Amino acid sequence: MSNLETKPADGVAAGSQVNPVENRFTNKFAHILSDLGKNGIFLALILVVVLFSVLTNGILLRPQNISNLIVQNGYILVLAIGMVMVIIAGHIDLSVGSVAAFVGAVSGVFAVDWGLPWWLSIILSLLVGALVGVWQGFWIAFVGIPAFIVTLAGMLIFRGLALVVLGSASIGSFPGEYRALGNGFLSNIFGEFEIDPFTLGVAAIAILALVVQQFRTRAGRSSYGQAVEPLAWFVAKLVLIAAAIGFFAYELASYKGIPATLIVLAVLVLVYGIVMNRSVFGRHVYAIGGNLHAAELSGIKTRNVTFWLFVNMGFLAALAGLIFTARLNLAGPKAGDGFELEAISAAFIGGAAVQGGVGTIGGAIIGGLIIGVLNNGMSIMGIGIEWQQAVKGLVLLFAVAFDVYNKRRSGGR
Amino acid sequence: MTDKVDAPLNILEMRGITKTFPGVKALQDVTIEVGRGQVHAICGENGAGKSTLMKVLSGVYPFGTYEGDIVFENKIVEFKDIRDSEAEGIVIIHQELALSPYLSIAENIFLNNEQRGGLGLIDWNKTNAEAAKLLARVGLRENPTTKIMDIGVGKQQLVEIAKALSKRVKLLILDEPTAALNDDDSDHLLNLILHLKEQGITAIIISHKLNEIKKVADSVTVIRDGKTIETISKSDVTEERIIKDMVGRDLENRYPDHTPHIGDEILRVEDWTAHHPQDVNRVVVDNVNINVRRGEIVGIAGLMGAGRTEFAMSLFGRSYGSKISGRVFKNGVEIKTRTVSEAIANGLAYATEDRKTYGLNLIDDIKRNISMAALKKLEKLGLVNDGQEWTVANEYRKSMNIKSPTVLAKTGKLSGGNQQKVVLSKWIYSDPDVLILDEPTRGIDVGAKYEIYSIINKLAAEGKGVIVISSELPELLGICDRIYALSEGRITGELPIEEASPEALLKLMTMEKAR
């Protein structure tokens, strides 16, 4: 059997000696194809954006709308980051919407009813979220109750507690600094301009950092003798991404500047991206989702990892709840309704696997953006909420079906 | 041939059965004859082809995928699947029982053969009444509505037989029926087989427990390397003869040379006992004492169900079992191995017998699988050094000769031999002092086996202690310096390689508790 399976590899090696030119060409081509395959979700986002730009006569890409897109979807994206990590480990969290509502209500008590300083309210609220995570993580990791059940219970428990805290009313009129979390913009640092130079400056720094980081990674890889993609393709991709960031920043700069939510998101994506890609903890999460038994027998403390994943999810759910409450300037009983489903959809559209072991932070963010653009685009077009629901459902189904089909075709499991 | 049509003494004849898997001849011209109303035993080492033969007979491997004829009740039969063979009255009871734990005894007995009343709905009174009758026949005093999960393995075995009876079985095949049973349950089962024989039911029993074969079998067929060696009738059965038939193969030079340089004791396990994880009163590993010295390759020989893997896994971070007791010493100092990470930190490594289920993350690449047990070595401030990891993985790819274009290939797509090399790389990179290798060459072709043996030799030459668990005696005899025999969870003997022979080992491996 091993003979059969090693043959293709030998074949490639032999081919490269016989016909190097053709091989280099196909190599280049293969890189592009494999990138397209890997970034299919990214292409899907571009497709959806283009589609709705046309359907909305360009309203979708207007500065104000782009800014809205970020602010309206920020909390879903925050949840999607935590959710995809939970899903990679082979679990699920149905409670995040209720937890967001509960923490929003609690923060209202802190900031409004008790009049605590805004920063203390935020810290305490995040702590409450983490404690919720401790509670759920305990049952899942150490008692061994399936996450589906624990978080389904959590969905009811924390929705109920949110109502208890609110006492059949809503809490409103939060302090301005608190509200900035959802509504604030960073701009006009250098004074009033038509196009905010601060926003453009931040974008320029971001692009520069990205380019430097990408080149360093590439150089690092080739210094270890790892195969890297052809330079031309690499540069082309970078230029494309830089252009996208530039356009995006220009749009924001000509509206109100950088939304505070975007800054929070950027920090989260950066930190959690490193955690999942480069940290030992992230490796352990992938290992647990890929094969729990093998992870256990490799000495990974699987229970601890699971526990901390849910603590983290509680923390992020709290953050999402704060952003949402700040945006509405109101902690209400219906807050967070259906958030869990949007976050889960985002993770799966972004390529996470139901069996666990597969998924990325970037994918979940893009998945969340696709849902956001769908919501936003259809709203602009005046499509009713009922059809929006149906379309989103179909997109989720087709996205995952496409993923499954792709994997089957490439011979994966 | 025609004379047999007139005198159907044999209920079953399998003539010249040959079964080929890609690259392997699992059965070669196997012929057995089973007399009507007899109990026929089939004996052979693990992997000799016993189960394959029974799968051919029961239609698991359908007609057309094997060569030769199956003659049942005087006619050539061509089973397409298990249903076909069951329709003829051939029922096989596998070692892994096929019962649904959450259904009742009666529901299990009539699964897919439901007792229907009017409107095609299930007639529960009839179901339970018929089940009660069948239970009486197998001597099981349980309420038919009791759930399978609430009765022990011995009783479950009886339910399987009752289920077979419900299908009007003529030929009952039992695959190692007593492997998981205690003595009382075994006795009951064997008596039941004799009792059913009086009622005219023919049985084939696959077993390597010699005393139970002597108790129930009218004749014994020994299979080795996919061939029938001989059929012995009851009066001629002796332990020596069966053992000689089971092992009598020539040892070719399939093992690399190994000159041991044995040093001081590196690991000693004292009084190690472990119980079954669910059935906590059942002792699976019974007071095991073993030791390993530096540079030594120590074998553990044991038949299926002897507790080899259970011993290793209970030792390695209590990954198996309950109520585990015993002491472990490394270099004379007592160490704890309560969790896997503690075991690894104390210099133990365990490469599993089932690499797909317990050894590898099949959806991840070679690189990350190799580093999985020793990420600490690549870590700085919680971050993994990717470049160093890549270098390490490539070193192992070269030194272990893992056949893959890059270390970014998914392990799920590698051949068995290459997967095993990844598993070994993982454990060698974790820098252990003692490696426990459980069936290190299972499902691997001959060439890769030789490579694995060379790696084992090299580890020993580096001064590590290596424990090899294997069900292939020639393999143990070919690579080990000393071999322990394990039977029913106990160490029944210890032989230096000079004194070890297949006969001597098999005698120890089949040594049973005094009854």
Secondary-structure topology with pairs:
The complex is a heterodimer of chains A (413) and B (515).
Chain A: H1 2-18, H2 20-38, H3 40-55, H4 63-88, H5 96-113, H6 118-143, H7 147-166, E1 171-172, H8 176-183, E2 185-186, H9 197-223, H10 231-253, E3 258-259, H11 260-278, H12 280-290, H13 292-297, H14 302-328, E4 330-331, H15 339-349, H16 361-380, H17 385-409
Antiparallel strand pairs in A: 1-4, 2-3
Chain B: H1 2-6, E1 10-21, E2 24-35, E3 39-43, H2 50-58, E4 66-72, E5 75-76, H3 82-87, E6 90-93, H4 105-109, H5 124-137, H6 153-166, E7 171-175, H7 183-198, E8 202-206, H8 210-216, E9 219-224, E10 227-233, H9 239-247, E11 265-275, E12 283-293, E13 297-302, H10 308-315, E14 322-330, E15 333-335, H11 340-345, E16 348-351, H12 355-359, H13 366-371, E17 379-380, E18 383-384, H14 386-399, H15 416-429, E19 434-438, H16 446-461, E20 465-470, H17 473-479, E21 482-487, E22 490-496, H18 502-509
Helix pairs in contact in B: 5-6, 9-18
Would you mind describing this structure in some detail?
Chain A has 413 residues and is mainly α. Chain A folds into two domains: 46-185 and 283-370, no CATH class; 188-255. Helices cover 77% and strands 2% of the residues of chain A. Chain A has helices spanning 2-18, 20-38, 40-55, 63-88, 96-113, 118-143, 147-166, 176-183, 197-223, 231-253, 260-278, 280-290, 292-297, 302-328, 339-349, 361-380, 385-409; strands at 171-172, 185-186, 258-259, 330-331. The radius of gyration of chain A is 23 Å and the shape is globular. Chain B is globular, with a radius of gyration of 25 Å. In chain B, strand 14 (322-330) and strand 15 (333-335) form a beta hairpin. Chain B folds into three domains: 2-247, Rossmann fold, CATH 3.40.50.300; 261-347 and 432-515, Rossmann fold (3-Layer(aba) Sandwich); 360-431, no CATH class. Chains A and B meet through helix 1, helix 9, helix 12 and helix 13 of A and helix 11, helix 12, strand 18, helix 14 and helix 15 of B. Chain A: GO terms for molecular function: transmembrane transporter activity.
